[in-house]
Amino acid sequence: MEELLELKQLLLKGDLKGSLAIVEELEEMGRKSIIKTIRSYAVILLLHLIKQQAEKRTTRSWDVSIRNCVREIQRENKMRKAKGYYLNREELKEILEEAYLNAIDSASLEVAEGRYSPEELETLINREEIFDRALISIMNS
């Protein structure tokens, strides 16, 4: 990575201010990558929660997918060395809200064999209940 080489040069020169700026940039890049990964799993998690609620049923496949997504979100969110989390509950809720449009679009293709538009499907579900269930699963498992 270009940033690491630049950081090395700045450290060798003794430029701590410039080095810290590069470190902050690297931290932000890492955080964005984690958020992107969590958002991807959140779309799949919400998709299956929407399908469960809209169809008032579940399948083993949906249940496994939900569990896997929850575990992957938890894994991505956990800081390895600092023993904390990258994102708090509110930030996770924001990511779920960002992922929702993609999830409802995908769910509209699958629920009832694709007979509902995303807007029609939204009238069949309780969005907040789905977010709450997703957050509880992520925070408590």
TrEMBL record:
Protein known as: DUF29 family protein
Domain of life: Bacteria
PANTHER family attached to this UniProt entry: SLR0416 PROTEIN, SLR1203 PROTEIN-RELATED
One protein family per Pfam: DUF29
Listed InterPro entries: DUF29
